[in-house]
Amino acid sequence: MLFYLFPYIYITFVSLNLYFRKIKVNFWTLVFLFMPALLVVVLRGNVGTDSFFYLALLQDYKMYGESPMRYEPGFEFLGKALVFLGASPRAGVALIALISSGILFKVYSRSRNEMILLALLVFPLFFYDFTMNGIRYGLSFCVATLAVDKLYQKKYRQFAVWGIVAFLIQYSSLLILLLFVSVLIKKKYQIFFVAILSLFIIVSPSMFSFFMERVSNKSEDYSQLYAPSFVSGLGPLFVVLLMYVNFLWFNRGEKYSKLVHTIFICELLSFIFAKFSYAGLRFQGAFMYCMIIYLKNNSKKIDLPWKYTVNLAIVSVFSILLFAKNITTVVQDELTPFLPYHFFWEEKYPDRL
Fold it and tell me: Where are the domains of the chain?
């Protein structure tokens, strides 16, 4: 557990110091700030819940050029490209994690307000999950963040490009993209978006059929997994509630997008859905990240007092406790758990499974 907690303590104290001293931040500031966490990610052995499957996928590509495991076309292309360039399975997984991290540092380095969100919220809630567990959805959500930034900047073509990339890496990023598209673009562009989607269905029915088959398979998988108790998802809901109330309290009297209410309602509905299906927990995670993206792109409008940041720090402590609880929960047949942590050179095969 120390390997996960030390980077959190370091990042929290250094980021708060940078923030309150009003030091200008950039991409390289965040690289330095997150260096301990990056070392934990890159130097790990068979650690991280889903790492086993991604290592096995790249190992198949290395040995056979193909794999019976099927993922989204964008992620498969990236995996094959890394193997083609000579990366070992373990190096390939580490490189994907570094790409995700680099995108996060880029999109959260525009201001001190965004940097503190990355350090206090994104890191404890998502960073290890993005880079050591669900690296597919992690990379997709990072690219989706970049896409939404372009949407706020009204750079619609760039939004479309990055949105498509995010979608092709992992389909669940569509939840994030559609939520922001529904509010941030004019109706004529929404009609254009629907027209493009319809044209895609007509021109490429085989690809659309493949997409629907993947969604169907995911839904079937989720339908067989039920939330273990009535309180499942209560932690993420509480975190989103704290972010929601904190934003509204310090934004009183100012104009803000009603999207913040929509995101909270979606989180609440997902919490209710989680009582019946594991998919609800996945939706909660997606909408929780949507709330952070919203705060990221609206924090410039707030003259942030020190109390706002202190409240974020309180949410951050609760978030890291939530992460600690999740990784210490024993799951049956888990092949590569987060604990105990060990380095890649301690494995029987340092470069692969």
Answer: 2-212
> Using an 8 Å Cβ cutoff, are 297 and 148 in contact?
yes
Q: Specify the pLDDT at position 46.
A: 95
Q: Rounded to 5 degrees, what are φ and ψ at 2? A: -60, -35
Residue 287: how many other CB atoms lie within 10 Å: 25
326: nearest Cα among 224, 235, 218, 238: 235
| Residue 105 one-letter amino acid | F
Whether residue 227 is predicted with pLDDT greater than 60 in this model: the reply is no
Mean pLDDT of 318-340: 86
Report the half-sphere exposure of 186 (CA within 13 A, side-chain side): 4
Cβ proximity of 111 and 24 under 8 Å: no
Q: Give the mean pLDDT of the chain.
A: 88
Q: For residues 351 and 88, is the Cβ–Cβ distance under 8 A?
A: yes
Tokens of 207: 């690809």
Q: What is the pLDDT of residues 150-172, one digit of tens each?
A: 999 999 999 999 999 999 999 89
What is the distance between the terminal CA atoms of the chain, rounded to a whole angstrom?
23
